[in-house]
C-alpha cells in the first residue's frame, strides 16, 4: 500500500508530465482540494509558478455582478477592474443582491457603504430562490423570512442582526468609513461578519440552502464600494469573547404547521386512537411532531451547552459537560483504529 513518504519525493508520480497535471488542477473546484493537491510532492508544487496556474485562480475570485431591481435609480459601475460601485440616484429604499450563488466552499465579500448621512444601510444574505423588487427593504413582510441582515448606523436597532422579526444585539455599529466583510461557509452553514477585520460576536449557523450576498441603502447619492468577492482557502474566523449564535431552526416552523394541521384534521376519537393504538393518519402526524420536538430540544441543548462551556469551562467540567482528557482519549482511539485498519489492509 502507498504511504505518504513514498509520494513526497522529488519527481514523484512518475509518468505524469506538467501538462497533464495542470489539466487536473484546472478541474478542481475547491480551493482546499487544490492546496492539498499542490503539496503532494515537490514536482507538483512547482506548478504554482507556471503561467497557466494563475488563470486557474480566477475561478476563486469571480467577477462581481448584481441583480439590479431598479436600473433607472441604481447605477452599477466599475472602479478599477476589480472593485465595483453601486450608486443610488434617488432617495428610495432599495436592496441589491449579487448574482454569485454561495456554494461549494467559503465565500467572502468586502463592502463599504459611503455618503451615508444618518443611515449607513445594511449587508446580509438572501435565499437564492428569492428576488428583491424595486423599492424593497429587507425587513419588508415579503422579504424578512428570506434574508438575514446586519444593520449599520441608523438602521435600528444599530448594529443588530435581524432574522425573522428578531433583533439580536451585540455586534459593532458600523458607519460609512468602515469596511464590513461577510464570510459565509456553505459547508458549515455559518455566516460571520468582520468590521475593519475585527470579528463580530453575533453570527448565524444552521444555514442549509443556497444564498447570495446583498446590500441595502436608502439615500440619494449614497453609494457602496464592493471591494472584493472571493472564495477562500480556509475560514478566517476564530474565537471571540461574548460569542452569540443564532440558529436558523426551520424545524420549529414546520413543527408549528404540523401541530396546526393535527388540530384541524383530527377529533378527540382520532387523537385517542393515535395515542393509544398508534394507527391512522393522525398517528403518523403525531409521530412526526414528537420527532421534531426531540430534534429541536437536542439542538437547543447543544447550543446552550457549547455557550455554557465557553463562558465557564471550570464549572462545566464539574457538572460533566467537559471531561478532562476526553478529547485526547478520543484522538488516541481514532489513531489506534486507523493503525488496525492499515494492518488489515
From TrEMBL:
It comes from the Eukaryota. This is Uncharacterized protein.
Amino acid at each position: 500500500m502507498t504511504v505518504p513518504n513514498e509520494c513526497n519525493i522529488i519527481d514523484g508520480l512518475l509518468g505524469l508530465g506538467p501538462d497533464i497535471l495542470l489539466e487536473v488542477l484546472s478541474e478542481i473546484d475547491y480551493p482546499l482540494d487544490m492546496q492539498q493537491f499542490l503539496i503532494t510532492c515537490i514536482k507538483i508544487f512547482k506548478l504554482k509558478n507556471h503561467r497557466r496556474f494563475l488563470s486557474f485562480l480566477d475561478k476563486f475570485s469571480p467577477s462581481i455582478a448584481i441583480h439590479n431591481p431598479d436600473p433607472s435609480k441604481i447605477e452599477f459601475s466599475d472602479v478599477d477592474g476589480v472593485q465595483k460601485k453601486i450608486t443610488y440616484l434617488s432617495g428610495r429604499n432599495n436592496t441589491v443582491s449579487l448574482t454569485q450563488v454561495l456554494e461549494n466552499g467559503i465565500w467572502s465579500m468586502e463592502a463599504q457603504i459611503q455618503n451615508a448621512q444618518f443611515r449607513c444601510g445594511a449587508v446580509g444574505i438572501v435565499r437564492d430562490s428569492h428576488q428583491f423588487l424595486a423599492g424593497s427593504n429587507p425587513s419588508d413582510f415579503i422579504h424578512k423570512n428570506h434574508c438575514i441582515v446586519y444593520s449599520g448606523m441608523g438602521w435600528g436597532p444599530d448594529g443588530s442582526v435581524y432574522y425573522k422579526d428578531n433583533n439580536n444585539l451585540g455586534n459593532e455599529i458600523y458607519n460609512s468609513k468602515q469596511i464590513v466583510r461577510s464570510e459565509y461557509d456553505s459547508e458549515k452553514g455559518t455566516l460571520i461578519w468582520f468590521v475593519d477585520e475585527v470579528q463580530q460576536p453575533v453570527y448565524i449557523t444552521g444555514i442549509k440552502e443556497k444564498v447570495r450576498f446583498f446590500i441595502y441603502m436608502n439615500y440619494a447619492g449614497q453609494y457602496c464600494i464592493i471591494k472584493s468577492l472571493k472564495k477562500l482557502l480556509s475560514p478566517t474566523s476564530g474565537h471571540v469573547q461574548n460569542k452569540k449564535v443564532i440558529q436558523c431552526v426551520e424545524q420549529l416552523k414546520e413543527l408549528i404547521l404540523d401541530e396546526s394541521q393535527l388540530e384541524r384534521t383530527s377529533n378527540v376519537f382520532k387523537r385517542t386512537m393515535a395515542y393509544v393504538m398508534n394507527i391512522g393518519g393522525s398517528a403518523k402526524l403525531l409521530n412526526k411532531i414528537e420527532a421534531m420536538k426531540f430534534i429541536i430540544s437536542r439542538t437547543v441543548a447543544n447550543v446552550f451547552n457549547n455557550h455554557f462551556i465557553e463562558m465557564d469551562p471550570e464549572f462545566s467540567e464539574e457538572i460533566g459537560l467537559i471531561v478532562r482528557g476526553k478529547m485526547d482519549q478520543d484522538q488516541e482511539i481514532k489513531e489506534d483504529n486507523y493503525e488496525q485498519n492499515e494492518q488489515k489492509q
